[in-house]
Amino acid sequence: xxxxxxxxxxxxEGIKSLCESKNIDFNSIELIGASKFRDIETLKCLAKDGRxxxxxxxxxxxxxxxxxxxxxxxxxxxxxxNKVKYVVGKVRYISSLDRESLAExxxxxxIKHGCKQKCLIEVNSGDEDCKGGLSVDEVEGFIESLKxxxxxxxxxxxxxxxxxxxxxxxxxCFTKVKEIFDKISRERSExxxxxxxxxxxxxxxxxxxxxxxxxxxxxxxxxx
Length: 224
Ligand SMILES: *Cc1c(COP(=O)(O)O)cnc(C)c1O
Description:
single chain; TIM Barrel; 8-stranded parallel beta sheet; 8 strands; 40% helix; globular
């Protein structure tokens, strides 16, 4: 656990110094723990420290087995419609909303449970075919189509960066997402989360306007 806190100290130092040089408000940036494969005791300890209190899980099965009401959770991985029933009402955000069939099922489960569900739209900023997520050009139309699902509150975007590209290309991708985020957030006050950046690229993402980063290996160490 000590090493996780050491890692977090270093991460915060790096972000603070970037924020100072780029005139970004450090306190506006949320660090969430990408907690796949990490045990619940580690997460509880980390939450006690108070700086990382939200955990993003990829798989519903793993989320279910770890779920603890005293922590705050997001679903950040691809979500199958038939698993929606296990997460609605239990997670803060479903961060991987990327298709209408998924929205339909979220709406159905919300009605059943008498709750609302906050969601982020997943954007594949590099337009790679192999991954989930909408392309930047599809985001506005998709949000428009979500009007049919009044239980869904659309709170922002989660973008996944293309792999193996250089910093210049990465910045281009993140900046494109930031532009569409700004456009939509001007029209919708509750549209306020821009989640971009993981262990390899969180500083670049923050520089490009991310206000949430999802940290796995850089925080917890290499995956077991
Ligand atoms: C695993 C994961 C992360 C964190 O990955 P690291 O590179 O280990 O920081 C972030 N976002 C999503 C969607 C993930 O699946």
